[in-house]
Amino acid sequence: MNVDLRDRSAIITGANQGLGKAIAAEFLRAGAGVLLTARNEPLLREVQKELHPLAQRGRPVEVMRADVSRPEDCQATADRAARDLPDLAVLVNNAGVYGPKGATEEVDWAEWEQAIRVNLFGTVLMCRAVIPLLRKRGYGKIINLSGGGATAPMPRISAYAASKAAVVRLTDTLAEELKDAKVDVNAIAPGALNTRLLDEVLEAGPEKVGKAFYDRALRQQKEGGAPPEKGAKLAAFLASPQSDGITGRLISAVWDDWASLPSKREQLAGSDVYTLRRIVPEDRGMKW
User: Fold this and answer.
1) What is the Cα–Cα distance from 200 to 60, expressed in whole angstroms?
2) E strand segments, 191-245
3) pLDDT at 193 over 70
4) Residue ranges of the domains in the chain?
5) Please, which residues bridge with residue 36 across strands?
6) Bridge partner list, 119
C-alpha cells in the first residue's frame, strides 16, 4: 500500500536504529518531514546523514537527543517540533527497552523500574507533551509500539511484558479521550524483529531468559525474524489520511490484513476487534 504523508510531519522516538530508523525512512519516502529523537546523539547524527537523501523536496530531517523517561526532554521535543515542524500531525512512540532479564523477585529493582519509565512513562510523557499541539491542529495521529509482551506472558522479562500491556490500555483509553479532537491513537505489534533486543536476549543466555525463550530467539536469529519494513509500512498507514477514524486498536504488522481496514471502517468501529478484552466462559462455549 502506498501512502501520502506530504502534508504532515512526525516525531519518532528511538529512531537511531532498528524499527525506529525503518519507520523514519518509510515516512520520508512517503513525503513526511521528521524530528527523530534518541539517547545516543552520535548515532542519531549518523542516521540523519543516511536518511537525508530520502527526504522529498527539502522536507526536514531534524534530530535531537532526548530521553523519553525525562519529562523535561519530552517537553523540549514538543517545543522543538512546534518551532520547526509547523505541520506536525504524527507522534510515533517507538523508544523502548527490554529491561532486566530473570525471575521477577531476583532482578535488580532499579532496572525493572527504569524499564517501566522508558516503555510506559516515556509513552505517556510524550503524549502529554504533544497532545496539546494536536488538539490545536484539530487533527492528529499517535502510534504506540507494543508487541508480544502485551498479549502473552513473558516469563523472566516481566518489566517489558507489563509495560507493553499497559501501553495498549493507554492506547485505547487515549483513543476515547481524543475522539472529539479527531486524533486517532493506535498501537502496533511489529513482530519478532532481529534488533538489539534480540541481541540482548542471546547475550543474557538461557539461565536468565529461560531455555524456551532462548531457543526461540536462536531460531529467530537463524531464520531472520520479521522484516522491520512491515512494521514501518503499518506505521505509515496509521499516520496517513487513509486510516482516519481507525482508532483504539492493537494491530499486528505481520498477521493482520491492515491494508483492507479502510473498507471495514464502520464494522471495525462497532466491534472489539484488535483490542484487549477479558475472556469469559461463555466466549469459549462453557456454561459456568
Assistant:
1) 33
2) none
3) no
4) 9-191+227-275, 193-225
5) 12, 63
6) none
What mean pLDDT is reported for the chain? Answer: 92
Per DSSP, the three-state class of 168 is helix
Model pLDDT for residues 247-288, shown as the tens digit of each residue: 999 999 988 999 999 999 999 999 999 999 999 999 999 989
Beta bridge partners of 90: 10, 141
In DSSP terms, 37 is beta-bridged to: 13, 64
- pLDDT exceeds cutoff 60 at 194: no
Give 270's DSSP letter: T
C-alpha cell recorded at residue 63: 534530530
Return the residue matching grid coordinates 516503555. Answer: 119
- Would you tell me how many other CB atoms lie within 10 Å of the CB of residue 276? 15
Give the pLDDT confidence score for residue 19 in this predicted structure. Answer: 93
All cell numbers assigned to 148: 508480544
- Give residue for cell 537463524: 222
Quote the crossing angle between the two packed helices 18-29 and 41-51, to the nearest 10°: 30
Average pLDDT on 169-187 reads 98
Considering the four listed CATH numbers 3.40.50.720, 3.30.1330.10, 3.30.1700.10, 3.30.450.40, the one that applies to the domain covering 9-191+227-275 is 3.40.50.720
Q: Which residues are catalytic?
A: 160
pLDDT for 210 equals: 73
User: CB of 27 within 8 A of CB of 103?
Assistant: no
